[in-house]
Design goal:
- This protein is α/β, with parallel strands linked by helices and 597 residues long.
- It folds into 2 domains: 206 residues, Spore Coat Polysaccharide Biosynthesis Protein SpsA, Chain A, CATH 3.90.550; 253 residues, Spore Coat Polysaccharide Biosynthesis Protein SpsA, Chain A (Alpha-Beta Complex).
- The protein contains 16 helices and 26 strands.
- α11 packs antiparallel against α13 and α13 crosses α14.
- The protein starts with 7 loop residues before the first helix and ends with a helix.
Length: 597
């Protein structure tokens, strides 16, 4: 006789519950055994699978899964359509940063916390509120990189509950294509807020007016129920200031400027004539003051390139803030998987190969000595020089129609020619190798000093009028890369902004430079990889003043990997006879390509 007799409906419920529990347990176990997916925008025909290597948890394997539909696409055998962009490859180096894109600025929080004792959480009546406020003063002022570092130090070092950046109406911090740091902060940190200053706080006549500035700080802190921390925009925190929050008022000064104010109900006279102050050291003296709570950035301009590789204390601190670690940021290098010895070239429309185009393509064969050049285009070229290239048995034509849209953004008539740019980047993403524009030539073989980098790019001399604040820009006319590189994948994703923030100049010249600033481990910028010549004026980027329009200098072109003649075509390259009968520096380059010298 059963111990417990249940109605049949009760048995059904229990049986169903047991089955559901078993099903969930099985599903959970299966999910745990599966590789982890790390994508933000999965393509229907391309999935990147990130799987922990059981032998070393810091190394990851990447597996490409291509559907049958993807294999049937044009442009290249077994290639994926350029309209089906892969999302970013995510790699992790054993001793490097997690390069999940976009890299979260949150990285590095733990590095600023004390390893010896936990942070003390102060009650409302034990100390002033852990809220940091900045006051932005002045019209039409750009929010620059150094200002971002200041806010980052407040967020990462002090680790407050909230950070405010106040401004007066008509004086909002400005941004442009280069200085987009403020947007990065707003998009990354939920507790960072940019807002108008309380309406009852009067705007100073001039930002340099000491009394007005002191009155503003006093009024702002008084408006906070439990006080707070005021911080100047040119100050970096090196250590938390929690110990000072327990006091009534604490003042930090930098030279004659109020750097930090901590307290509540602070009066104007206390700020103007404080009884006691603590000094913030200058950024170039921080090495001798490692225990200083704050430092003053007494520097007019600062760019990420200025902090990547220098070994000074200031650079180590700012790298920790911006990159999440103090380590020098150098591009990764390995010759175990060098850049493939193949070339890529793209021609749009029906083309009878000119001598200049022949010279450009042939430079990959004669100078680089590539195994194969893949000429991509919508029509196979014709003419005498095409026949000469075919006789080398080192060139293949690959049908690839032109792009009409990029991520559903229509390519304008002005940018039709540059629609090839995303394709050239995509070819390198899939297969690696080198790419060269039709108006450039290689002048030096790619040696092992270059082939070990994941991506190699060169500079342009020209900074577009739309973005005058860029310190430098990149020209994509010559590129070398390993396949499936992190940098190229991020570059492709940035083409989603094509036509929204700008056309070719934005995605081709500006975007890769910004990616280089954020991810310097993923790309090598080589000043001798490419020299731009424009209107018969060459601009070697290692020379002082190279970005001036009228700059020109004879240079040792034999030590340069490539030369790019953006406008106009050199007369030495009009015909083969023009090249034979010329003795100029440019003619010497072409004669080397032809094997005459």
């Amino acid at each position: 006789m059963p111990l417990l007799k249940l109605p049949s409906r009760g048995l059904t419920v229990i049986t169903s519950a047991v089955f559901i529990c078993f099903l969930f347990t099985a599903m959970f176990s299966r999910l745990q055994s599966r590789p982890r997916l790390m994508n933000t925008a999965m393509s229907a025909s391309y999935v990147e699978v990130r799987e922990i290597n059981k032998n070393d948890s810091a190394e990851f394997r990447t597996t490409k899964i291509t559907t049958a539909a993807a294999k049937e696409k044009d442009c290249k055998p077994d290639a994926i359509s350029p309209t089906e962009m892969p999302s970013a490859i995510h790699k992790k180096q054993a001793n490097g940063r997690d390069l999940h894109y976009p890299l979260m600025l949150y990285e590095g929080f733990k590095g600023f916390a004390s390893a010896k004792e936990p942070r003390q959480i102060l009650g409302a009546y034990e100390g002033v509120a852990n809220i940091v406020s900045f006051i932005w003063c002045g019209k039409n002022r750009l929010f620059e990189f150094k200002h971002m570092l200041s806010v980052l130090s407040a967020l990462k070092v002090q680790q407050p509950l909230k950070v405010n950046l106040f401004y007066w109406p008509g004086s909002k911090p400005q941004e442009d294509l280069y200085n987009s740091w403020l947007s990065e902060l707003k998009e990354t940190f939920f507790n960072f807020k940019v807002s108008k200053i309380p309406h009852d706080i009067q705007e100073p006549v001039t930002c340099a007016d000491t009394n007005h500035r002191a009155n503003t700080i006093s009024s702002l802190i008084k408006s906070m129920p439990y006080g707070g921390i005021f911080m100047d925009e040119n100050i970096l925190l090196q250590h938390p200031v929690d110990q000072y929050r327990k006091k009534d008022t604490v003042f930090f000064r930098s030279d004659t400027t109020t750097a930090l104010v901590i307290g509540r109900n602070i009066t104007l006279s206390q700020i103007i004539r404080p009884m006691d102050t603590i000094s913030c050291v200058s950024h170039d003296q921080i090495a001798g003051n490692p225990r200083a709570a704050c430092l003053s950035m007494e520097i007019e301009t600062l760019y990420p390139r200025d902090i990547m590789t220098k070994s000074g204390a200031f650079e180590r601190i700012t790298r920790k803030l911006f990159y999440g670690s103090e380590e020098v940021k150098e591009p990764r290098f390995s010759l175990s998987d060098p850049i493939p010895n193949i070339g890529h070239f793209y021609l749009l429309g029906e083309n009878k190969i000119s001598f200049f185009i022949y010279l450009s393509i042939y430079s990959m064969i004669s100078v680089l000595q590539v195994d194969t050049v893949y000429l991509h285009g919508d029509y196979e070229p014709t003419g005498h020089f095409w026949e000469k290239l075919l006789k080398t048995e080192k060139i293949k034509f690959i049908f690839c129609p032109p792009m009409e849209t990029i991520f559903s953004n229509t390519i304008s008539s002005d940018d039709k020619f540059h629609g090839k740019d995303i394709l050239s980047v995509y070819f390198l993403y899939l297969y690696g190798g080198v790419f060269i524009d039709w108006d450039a030539i290689f002048t030096k073989p790619l040696d092992d000093a270059v082939r070990g980098y994941e991506v190699v790019l060169g500079y342009d001399w020209f900074i577009p009028e739309e973005s005058p604040t860029f310190p430098e820009v990149i020209n994509p006319g010559v590129i070398a890369a390993k396949p499936y590189s992190v940098f190229i994948s991020m570059w492709l994703e940035k083409y989603k902004e094509f036509g929204q923030k700008g056309g070719f100049y934005y995605t081709g010249l500006l975007v890769p430079y910004k990616l280089y600033e954020r991810y310097p481990e993923t790309v090598k910028l080589d000043k001798k990889f490419q020299v731009i010549c424009w209107k018969k004026t060459c601009h070697p980027p290692w020379m002082e003043g190279y970005n001036r329009p009228a700059f020109h200098s004879e240079f040792n072109w034999q030590n340069v990997y490539s030369v790019h003649f953006t406008f106009p075509d050199p007369h030495e390259f009009y015909t083969i006879n023009d090249l034979r009968n010329s003795s100029s520096m440019i003619a010497q380059m072409g004669q080397k390509v032809m094997g005459w010298t």
